[in-house]
């Protein structure tokens, strides 16, 4: 296996992916914030997506066989960066990209869960950006581009867990939806998915997430109970009707060990 480049390796999901892939590979990562924490770390490169020369410089320096994109930032800047990245990847014909996307590409249609073969239909700015980026990358790179869509992501000491502790301490309010069905994933589960794609060459679109779903309010309640948190201050969002932000999969090439239930996720993060 050649080198791997994780874009956004300083973020919550990107860091988990980099850590997992480093078990068997030479992995480079990028960061933008917290420069003091990373500038002396081996194989961590500073990346400003607003720099039009950044993709060419990064690829020349790291010579990656795989690029995992888990970037965050201004949507227009990210789109321009990924468009230039795809152009530079054409100079490395053996390179492949795994683009981390989101359930929000379906956020205009909340009447049902969605599968890999469904056409994206987004109404939020975030969902429309991710849809446009997915489409552009697949058009430019074809089968060399894999799309990994994520539902709501949790993990030990993740921002959502910290918000529950803050809510219980009266230091903030947790936004809770009372009629929204979701499925969930963990940072570690996502990292294992990416490792599976890299190691097997599996192609196409992937939906990561639990095989079942749960009302968001009930999920927060159950996690709070497991963490022994009481009186979590919540901002309740009471929708008029039940809606879904759920990613399910019809793929038959996903190992059973990558398939989790909501209960298994709760147990793993609490």
Automatic annotation (TrEMBL):
Pathway: Carbohydrate biosynthesis; dTDP-L-rhamnose biosynthesis. InterPro entries: dTDP_dehydrorham_reduct, NAD(P)-bd_dom_sf, RmlD-like-bd. Residues 83-233 form the RmlD-like substrate binding domain. It is an enzyme of class 1 (oxidoreductase). Its EC number is 1.1.1.133. One of its GO terms (molecular function) is dTDP-4-dehydrorhamnose reductase activity. It holds the Pfam family RmlD_sub_bind. Gene3D superfamilies: NAD(P)-binding Rossmann-like Domain. Keywords: NADP, Oxidoreductase. GO terms for biological process: dTDP-rhamnose biosynthetic process. The keyword ATP-binding does not apply. The keyword Oxidoreductase applies. PANTHER family: DTDP-4-DEHYDRORHAMNOSE REDUCTASE, METHIONINE ADENOSYLTRANSFERASE 2 SUBUNIT BETA. Belongs to the dTDP-4-dehydrorhamnose reductase family. Catalyzes the reduction of dTDP-6-deoxy-L-lyxo-4-hexulose to yield dTDP-L-rhamnose. This is dTDP-4-dehydrorhamnose reductase.
């Amino acid at each position: 296996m050649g080198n791997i480049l994780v874009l956004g390796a300083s973020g919550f999901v990107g860091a988990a992916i980099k850590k997992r892939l480093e078990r068997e590979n030479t992995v480079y990562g990028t960061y933008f914030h917290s420069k003091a924490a990373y500038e002396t770390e081996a194989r961590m490169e500073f990346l400003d997506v607003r720099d039009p020369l950044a993709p060419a410089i990064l690829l020349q320096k790291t010579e990656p066989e795989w690029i995992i994109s888990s970037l965050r930032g201004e949507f227009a800047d990210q789109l321009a960066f990924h468009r230039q990245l795809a152009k530079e990847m054409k100079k490395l014909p053996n390179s492949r990209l795994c683009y981390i996307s989101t359930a929000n590409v379906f956020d205009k249609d909340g009447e049902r869960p969605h599968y890999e073969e469904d056409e994206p239909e987004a109404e939020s700015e975030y969902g429309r950006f991710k849809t446009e980026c997915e489409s552009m990358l697949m058009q430019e790179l074809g089968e060399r581009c894999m799309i990994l869509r994520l539902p709501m992501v949790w993990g030990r000491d993740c921002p959502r867990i910290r918000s529950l502790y803050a809510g219980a301490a009266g230091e903030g309010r947790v936004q809770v939806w009372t009629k929204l069905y979701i499925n969930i994933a963990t940072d570690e589960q996502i990292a294992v998915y990416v490792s599976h794609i890299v190691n097997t060459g599996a192609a196409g679109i992937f939906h990561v997430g639990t095989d079942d779903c749960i009302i968001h309010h009930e999920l927060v309640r159950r996690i709070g109970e497991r963490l022994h948190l009481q009186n979590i201050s919540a901002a309740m969002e009471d929708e008029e009707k039940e809606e879904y932000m759920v990613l399910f999969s019809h793929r038959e090439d996903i190992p059973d060990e990558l398939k989790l239930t909501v209960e298994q996720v709760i147990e793993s993060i609490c």
